[in-house]
Specification:
CATH topology: Immunoglobulin-like
Largest sheet: 5 strands, mixed
Helix content: 10-25%
Shape: globular
Strand content: 25-35%
CATH superfamily: SOR catalytic domain
Radius of gyration: 14 Å
CATH architecture: Sandwich
Number of helices: 2
Bound molecules: fe (ii) ion
Strand order of the largest sheet: 1-8-7-4-5
């Protein structure tokens, strides 16, 4: 298994743990967390980044934190990031509260943009977490409520 695949697999497992709630407080931090603010779960520091917790990628939030739009039972995930051979968004996933991966999409550097659309289970209500992985700037999540 390539190192990249191992990292992605590990990142998905971490996202599932977060979605399942055992580390949910890591994503429930205030929108502005001062640099001195410890993450609620230190084991995720430097592994999972978010708008609220950009860590070392503080200047990369706009192009890496996935944007989530929910409408008509569908979730659109957009990472506003360029796509090139050297630098691109590798993958999106959508994870439900119980850790179920509701959808996943792997991108190619030649894709025009990093956008994916996933169907929610019928009548789903609860928390969702969109993930986005940049080949240079790590693993990002955006939680949302449906
Ligand atoms: Fe990037």
């Amino acid at each position: 298994m390539s190192e990249r695949r191992k990292f992605i697999k590990g990142s998905l497992a971490a996202a599932a743990v977060v979605a399942a709630g055992s580390a949910s407080s890591a994503l429930a931090m205030p929108k502005s967390c001062p640099k001195s603010c410890p993450t609620a779960n230190p084991s995720l520091t430097g592994i999972i980044y978010s708008k609220a917790n950009p860590g070392k990628w503080e200047k990369k939030v706009g192009g890496h934190a996935p944007q989530v739009t929910v409408a008509d039972g569908k979730v659109t995930v957009l990472t506003n990031h360029g796509m090139s051979e050297k630098h691109y968004i590798v993958r999106h996933t959508l994870v439900l509260t119980d850790g179920t991966v509701a959808g996943e999409k792997t991108f190619s550097p030649s894709d025009e943009k990093a956008e994916s659309v996933f169907d929610l289970p019928a009548d789903y209500k609860g928390r969702i977490i969109a993930t986005s992985f940049c080949n240079l700037h790590d693993f990002w999540v955006t939680p949302a409520q449906v």
